[in-house]
Design a protein that fits this description.
The structure holds three protein chains of three kinds.
Chain A (H helix, E strand, L loop, with lengths): L4 H32 L7 H20 L6 H7 L7 H35 L5 H23 L17 H19 L2 H10 L7 H32 L8 H29 L1 H5 L3 E3 H14 L16 H35 L21 H22 L13 H6 L3 H21 L6 H27 L28 H29 L16 E3 L10 H24 L16 H13 L5
Parallel strand pairs in A: 1-2
Helix pairs in contact in A: 1-4, 1-5, 1-15, 1-17, 2-3, 4-5, 4-6, 4-15, 5-6, 6-8, 8-9, 8-11, 9-15, 9-18, 11-12, 11-18, 13-15, 13-16, 15-17, 16-17
Chain B lengths: L2 H27 L18 E6 L2 E9 L2 E3 L3 E4 L2 E9 L4 E5 L5 E4 L5 E7 L3 E6 L12 E7 L1
Parallel strand pairs in B: 2-5, 4-10
Antiparallel strand pairs in B: 1-2, 2-3, 5-8, 6-7, 6-9, 9-10
Chain C lengths: L8 H28 L1
Classes of the chains: A mainly alpha, B alpha+beta, C mainly alpha.
Chain lengths: 610, 146, 37
């Protein structure tokens, strides 16, 4: 396949820019575990950065004999010990890591996989349009977040209000991703015409399912952002229906996790067996799994709202049953991948019931991608069960909004998903740049170091959560503030868990540092060959076609019916139990923003004139 | 589907079904349920605590930035409490330590939970939904005495 | 030698162990919720 310069640069941009942002998000994660444990109460690197920028601006102003830049005063007035800094950092961590990095990767990976397997060239003009829209959106949201005007966390629940650029930026990021996926449709149609009756390549089916689920899911959050939140943040509407906003968000919020998982599943089904030295146990299993995700990814969102008012218990129960249905394709995946690895292990001489487990390329430098996938799968063992617990209706009462929740999702999005995305980003960037992956020993070590760190982190967070330790809370200034020991607010029983999480978080940070060294080292190394693009493609052991799994449209139609059935009663309940809308609040003040503005205005008008 | 896949599918389905039965038993047999849809009470601005029966009380709480507006609650062991909760401003959480009371306080709507305190002791209430700069200081307490 | 069909006995054993682990972990949360009720 011919690789034009534009095509290569498109994918590289979509992989490298988010990787740079991930550095910031990952650093934020380190700060969070240190702040939570009450070990740090300000960010020393941020202080260094602000002081340096301030000093540089001062020098420049002096050199040019100018008045001191007001930005200098603004920078030095930032109170690094203010509690809001924790939530500022947490917002960046969630948005950059879980929304920006993941969305860009999914589009970039699709841009590589779809042309490769369909043997059709990508329309790079539309591709670049998509990338630019996503980049602009990220930039706008970034301005709002970095300037401290969007410390609302990645779920941005109203009536805490962010700057309009945050909502606009988020909407653009999503729309850009739609354009990126729509770009693949003409390629698919051409392929269909040229290959009538052939099964769609499994990897392409996986990416298409990823974006079908994404498109349906993001319709809801687009409505929330564009119709409810953006006009409200611009002051065009007075107040917002909070329960409605939440329901719309969580319609999106659960399929979001499959948007994250599915590209990793594409790698597990179509590439991992080859790299492991074997075959995919069953092609039909992969197709069945993808079809089940079309059906069950979306009509389940109320399991994120078990503790919410305004939604009847019978609908919460319905969503529980449907969520248990969506657990099935992941369980099937666990078996299918295990069977594929068993095949590979036995090819390699493994004997007995479990001998094959020891005949896999865990530490191979040539097959370094394997380490990213296997470490992710091992982490996912614990991610899966913690997710099933979350989805278990009344069991949720023990874990909702406790630190169990981030304990769970660092075993999923920061487990199999992150590692698959990191491994593939390195793989693609190296190939498309004609570079050799540097320091493969370090590259192979990263996923295992990460595995140790994240298991320790999540252990601390989940055990702490079962003791009532909350998530999304700057404990170091509250219940774990060393200065508050002996007061009723202090919770000595949580301290060990926050400390365990801190140790885990430090190890995770070390793993990421090592990864960034390998990634950027590879990126800036000398070119040693022509740019190319190829994937390790697995053959299937059981390869019989299943007709019902060949066409997506009937399954999508069924999914829409399921969504209507599962969500109509939820939305009906939400609307009839919501009695008044809420005005905007800023996180720093406990009065509505409107009242704040009134107070400022009155204060100004009562100033004596100079 | 080959035989091993059928076995796996069947096993998975059976385990999940068993779990679901367990959850139903927990809800209907042991009375542990999730909050439902309250429409008979509208959002209120007054907090209150009053007795409604022998060892039964009703509590109304308004969650605000950054403290719960609620009366001091000190009740004898064995008391049942009907809690109605709303928010006076933004989202808040309301998690009573060592119980299954885990609620979201949402402005514009009311939520409800019933809890029985059989053991004496102090039951801290934690706000676990981000509600602004003072979120980490937002706590309450329910005291149960002999 | 005729090619024998590959039967993933090891994967089935792994999967059964996985389900058992899941049941134990799920039950421990169930018991905790019962305790708090």
């Amino acid at each position: 396949m011919e690789l034009t310069r534009s095509y290569r640069n498109l994918i590289r941009t979509e992989l490298i820019v988010p990787m740079v942002l991930l550095v910031i998000g990952v650093y934020g994660g380190l700060m969070q575990v240190l702040f939570r444990a009450g070990v740090l109460d300000y960010d020393p690197l941020l202080k260094l950065l602000l002081d340096t920028v301030g000093a540089v601006l001062l020098v420049v102003d002096r050199l040019f004999g100018r008045e001191t830049d007001p930005l200098v005063a603004a920078l030095s007035s930032v109170d690094l010990r203010s509690s809001i800094m924790y939530y500022w950092s947490l917002t960046l961590h969630g948005v950059l890591n879980a929304i920006v990095f993941t969305t860009f990767f999914a589009v970039a990976f699709g841009n590589a996989v779809v042309p490769y397997f369909l043997k059709q060239p990508l329309n790079t003009r539309i591709g670049w349009l998509s990338a630019i829209v996503m980049l602009v959106g990220t930039g706008l949201a970034g301005i709002a977040m970095f300037s401290g005007q969007a410390s609302v966390l990645y779920t941005f629940y109203p009536p805490l209000k962010a700057h309009p650029l945050f909502y606009l930026g988020a909407a653009l990021l999503i729309v850009g991703s739609w354009i990126g996926a729509a770009n693949w449709i003409p390629m698919y149609r051409r392929w269909r015409r040229e290959n009538p009756g052939q099964r769609i390549p499994l990897a392409v089916m996986g990416m298409f399912v990823t974006f079908i689920v994404w498109f349906i899911a993001t319709l809801s959050v687009a409505v929330e952002v564009l119709l409810l939140l953006l006009p409200w943040s611009l002051g065009w509407t007075e107040a917002v229906d909070v329960p409605l906003a939440r329901a719309l968000f969580w319609f999106f919020g659960h399929p979001l996790v499959y948007f994250w998982l599915l590209p990793a599943y594409v790698m597990y089904y179509t590439m991992l067996p080859k790299v492991a030295g074997g075959k995919l146990f069953s092609d039909a299993a992969g197709r069945l799994v993808f079809v089940m995700f079309i059906l069950f990814s979306i009509p389940v969102g109320a399991h994120h709202q078990f503790a919410d008012p305004g939604i009847g218990t019978q609908w919460k129960w319905l969503h529980t049953v449907l969520t248990y249905a969506v657990a099935l394709p992941s369980l099937i995946t666990a078996f299918t991948i295990a069977a594929s690895l068993e095949y590979a292990g036995r090819q390699n001489g493994g004997r007995g019931l479990f001998g094959w487990m020891f005949r896999l390329p865990y530490f191979s430098r040539e097959r370094w991608l394997f380490s990213y996938w296997i470490a992710g799968l091992l982490i996912f063992i614990f991610g899966g069960i913690s997710g099933i617990v979350n989805a278990s209706y009344n069991l949720n009462m023990a874990v909702h909004n406790t630190s169990w929740i981030p304990g769970h999702f660092h075993l999923t999005v920061a487990g199999p998903v992150l590692l698959a995305f990191l491994g593939m980003s390195l793989y693609l960037v190296a190939q498309l740049s004609g570079k050799e992956v540097l320091w493969r020993g370090a590259a192979v070590a990263v996923p295992y170091l990460w595995l140790v760190g994240v298991l320790i982190f999540s252990w601390g967070m989940m055990r702490g959560g079962l003791h009532g330790m909350p998530r999304r809370t700057y404990l170091g200034a509250g219940a774990l503030n060393p200065d508050l020991q002996g007061t009723p607010l202090y919770r000595a029983d949580w301290a060990p868990y926050a400390e365990i999480a801190m140790v885990g978080g430090i190890i995770m940070f070390a793993a990421m540092l090592l990864y960034f060294v390998v990634f950027f080292g590879t990126l800036f190394a000398r070119r040693v060959r022509e740019a190319h693009l190829e994937f390790p493609v697995a053959e299937a052991y059981h390869d019989e076609p299943v007709r019902a799994l060949n066409r997506l449209a009937p399954w999508v139609a069924t999914a829409v019916v399921l969504i209507v059935l599962s969500y109509t009663p939820v939305l009906y309940d939400v609307l009839r139990s919501s009695f008044q809308k809420a005005p905007a609040y800023l996180p720093e003040y406990n009065v509505p923003e409107k009242q704040l503005q009134e107070t400022i205005r009155q204060g100004q008008s009562s100033q004596p004139t100079e | 589907m080959v035989r091993s896949e059928r076995v796996i599918f069947g096993l998975s389905g059976a385990v999940m079904a068993l779990f679901l039965v367990g959850l139903l038993v927990l809800a209907t047999g042991f009375g542990v349920d999730v909050p439902g849809c309250v429409t008979e009470m509208k959002p209120f601005e007054q907090d209150t605590l009053f007795q409604t029966g022998d060892r039964r009380w009703e509590l109304h709480v308004v969650a605000r930035m950054w403290a719960y507006q609620m009366p001091a609650v000190e009740l004898p062991a064995g008391s049942e409490l009907d809690i109605y909760l709303t928010s006076g401003d933004v989202l808040h959480g309301f998690h009573i330590d060592r119980t299954n009371v885990n609620l979201m306080a949402v402005p514009g709507t009311v939520t409800y939970a019933r809890v029985r305190f059989s053991e004496p002791g102090e039951y801290p209430i934690i706000c676990h939904e981000y509600c602004g700069i003072g979120h980490q200081q937002m706590v309450g307490v329910i005291r149960i005495v002999q | 030698m005729a090619a024998e069909e590959f039967k993933p006995k090891g994967a089935i054993a792994f999967f059964v162990a996985l389900l058992l682990l899941y049941a134990v972990m799920w039950l421990s949360v169930y018991v905790e919720v019962l305790r708090r009720g």
